[in-house]
Amino acid sequence: MKVYGADICADCRNFKHINQTRHLCLEYVNILENTSVLKEFLKLRDTSKVFNSCRSQGKIGIPCFVDGDRITLDIDEAFSWIGQPPVKEAELPE
User: Fold this and answer.
1) What are phi and psi of 34, to 5 degrees?
2) What is the mean pLDDT of the chain?
3) CA distance 49 to 27
4) Chain segment 21-65, per-residue pLDDT in tens
5) pLDDT category, 2, cuts 50, 70, 90?
């Protein structure tokens, strides 16, 4: 699974912490790393209906979880794809 995010986002930092503490080794892609990564994310964001609400509210839409053809902005849904339990409040550092 690929996870698009940015380190300036608290939800993305929370994901990175959970990814590490659960030893998941999911691929985290920092969308601010370089322009080609940002363009890759923006193409996904501009074409997927998953982002309709984000676009209309002026939000970025990260963290974004992509597994093959599946895309979600919900960490618990993404974790269910890989057999992980939902995130508990105690797991969130922020």
Assistant:
1) -160, 170
2) 96
3) 23
4) 999 989 999 999 999 999 999 999 999 999 999 999 999 999 999
5) very high
If you compute the radius of gyration of the chain from its CA atoms, what whole number of angstroms results?
Answer: 13
Kind of pairing between the strands at 70-72 and 64-67: antiparallel
| Structure-block tokens of residue 44 | 């996904």
84-93, Cβ contacts within 8 angstroms, sequence gap of 24 or more:
84/22, 84/24, 87/18, 91/14, 91/17, 91/18, 91/21, 92/14, 92/17, 92/18, 93/13, 93/14, 93/17
Three-state SS for 20-48 is HHCCCCCEEEECCCCHHHHHHHHHHHHHC
What gap in Å lies between CA 92 and CA 64, rounded to an integer? 17
**74: nearest Cα among 43, 94, 91, 50:** 50
